[in-house]
């Protein structure tokens, strides 16, 4: 049979939605924690949105945007702090330590994932209903991606942590593509790895080569950094003439299973 089976991420691969996600997160955070935003003016909101572009790489699921928005407020306004981590925290430290910071602030703020996911979705729904053009305008497709989807002769699916209805709406309203909803695997359809396995196992996809285009997750990046660190250590020891230590490191690398 032959051919390719494409499974593409949406945010950061097809569509630059950072602006919309950040603005939606600010709207949602105001609803969730109104007292936190009593001292937040328009200038500070603009600063928050600017910082969110920098922090975008740590976001794996949309609701995390709300947490980041509130954390940024706590960094700038001491009287709004209810977490133990905000004092003196820098943007770079958030980028480097988000996986440790997230459970800490979730616990200290007494928040749960499902409630934040539902709120984030409802805020977007309200924005779409009341200002569709404004919501669409806060997103953009990367050059060439819309045409690639329209004219592709291969099997194409979208596998994303975004809620599927929002990806479908943007494809239709912004890119002019009537993309089949059954080909969009959004938030709640399961881990991406399992979705990719399901796609590969479908009878109609037998003989196709899976091509997965997605942004690296935090787990992916940890694995990359771990390997780079180990390779650098191996090279350093080899250059120092410590052949035995270098070989031990190589054997350790070959036998090690990294837990994400």
From TrEMBL:
<dbReference type="GO" id="GO:0035493">
    <property type="term" value="P:SNARE complex assembly"/>
</dbReference>
<dbReference type="GO" id="GO:0005768">
    <property type="term" value="C:endosome"/>
</dbReference>
<dbReference type="GO" id="GO:0000149">
    <property type="term" value="F:SNARE binding"/>
</dbReference>
<protein>
    <submittedName>
        <fullName>Uncharacterized protein</fullName>
    </submittedName>
</protein>
<dbReference type="InterPro" id="IPR036412">
    <property type="entry name" value="HAD-like_sf"/>
</dbReference>
<dbReference type="GO" id="GO:0000323">
    <property type="term" value="C:lytic vacuole"/>
</dbReference>
């Amino acid at each position: 049979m032959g051919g390719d089976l494409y499974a593409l991420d949406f945010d950061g691969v097809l569509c630059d939605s950072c602006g919309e996600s950040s603005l939606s997160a600010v709207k949602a955070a105001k609803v969730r924690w109104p007292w936190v935003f009593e001292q937040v003016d328009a200038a500070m909101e603009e600063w928050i949105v600017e910082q969110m572009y920098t922090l975008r790489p740590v976001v794996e699921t949309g609701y995390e945007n709300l947490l980041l928005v509130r954390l940024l407020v706590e960094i700038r306004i001491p009287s709004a702090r209810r977490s133990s981590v905000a004092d003196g925290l820098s943007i770079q430290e958030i980028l480097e330590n988000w996986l440790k910071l997230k459970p800490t602030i979730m616990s200290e703020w007494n928040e749960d994932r499902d409630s934040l996911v539902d709120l984030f979705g409802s805020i977007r729904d309200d924005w779409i209903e009341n200002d569709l053009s404004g919501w669409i305008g806060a997103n953009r497709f990367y050059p060439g991606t819309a045409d690639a989807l329209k004219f592709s002769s291969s099997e194409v699916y979208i596998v994303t942590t975004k809620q599927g209805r929002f990806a479908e709406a943007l494809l239709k309203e912004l890119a002019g593509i009537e993309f089949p909803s059954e080909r969009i695997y959004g938030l709640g359809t399961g881990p991406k790895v399992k979705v990719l396995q399901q796609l590969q196992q479908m009878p109609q996809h037998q003989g196709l080569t899976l091509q997965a285009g997605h942004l690296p997750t935090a787990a992916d990046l940890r694995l990359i950094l771990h390997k780079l660190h180990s390779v650098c250590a191996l090279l350093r020891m080899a250059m120092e003439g410590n052949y035995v230590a270098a070989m031990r490191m190589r054997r350790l690398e070959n036998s090690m299973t990294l837990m994400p």
